[in-house]
Amino acid sequence: MRVLPNDPAAPNNLAKTLAKEPPAKDAAKNAAKNAANSPAKTPAGAPLPDSKAELPPVIRRAEVVAFALVALLVICVVAVLYAAKAFFLPIVSAFVVGTMLSPAAGFLERRRIPRPVSAVLIVASVGAGVAFMVGLISSPLMEWSTRLPELGSQLKDKLHVFDRPLALWHELQAMVGMPDAGSNGAFALPKFDWVEPAVGFLSPTFTEFLLFIATLILFIASWRDLRRALVMTFGDHAARLRMLRILNEIEANLGGYLLTVTMINFGVGVATGITCAVTGMPNAAGLGALAATLNFFPIIGPVAMFVILAVVGVITASTIGIGLIAALLFVGITFVEGHFVTPTIIGRRLELNALAVFMALAFWTWLWGPMGGFLSSPLLIVALVLKGHLMPEDSPQLPAD
Question: Is 320 in contact with 336 (CB distance < 8 Å)?
């Protein structure tokens, strides 16, 4: 377009043309912005450059810190429970046993018996039953304790049959250079220096027993108020309903567990007593009561009862084979009870994994001794109930093998 000098519209047309065409600097900026926004073209077959925006790591640092904090919390709680055993063991035992006995208190309360009176009656009845069992067990123990030298000599005479295998064992020890503990190869009875520490370990102090009884009575008497306070702690209606369901299920499961296990152990005690009477064992009633009591402690109780029956049978019978009959029959009784009776009855209400039961037994026995072994299964039941309500299984299931 040619602009004539004498054309009056020339300046205006020139201004419009310059306004439409951007300056060189603005064009360069726009080109750089477009190049940054558009992906760079790479030749075909060339490797892609490394990108920093890759997938996140499987375990983040925050997850490691959270896991470490939870682990430290668990260690601190276990250390406190172990160090303050004299306080926590009676309290936890009273809470667990009181929850087991709460259905009985509710039954008496529906019969127009006040809750505090029901608590005293229940604790007195349970104490009378425990005292009766202790009386049956302690009478033969006191009789045998007065005859320990005589019984020891009888056991030593019966075990002379193992002199030859023990002599061979000592010869083998001498060949491999191990120190020989016995000089004549005869069977030596173990020393009884462990009796006093074991009795001190098994028997609680008077203060712990008094704390347990007082807490148990007060817990049973005020369980309804405690339930209401726990439920009303939450402000949300759904949270209150969930807490109420948890408490109801714990109470029902623990109460049913105590009743069922008591009846099963009573049957085991009766069967053991009849077996001891048929095989000629002394104090069959006391041995049956001991079997029923020890069967409350999973795994450990039956093993201890087998050893007791084997020792008593070997001492009192004419031969070792005859003396082991009662112990072998007890193995059959516990096998039927553990593999058929208990899974059939308790398995309908609760699914307790054998490994979980064993690990809980080992942990609580290490932490709190024999009473911890008694509490291991009820505490495992409480943990399973809490897990079922607080962590429901809504995740997709793994495919079957």
Answer: no
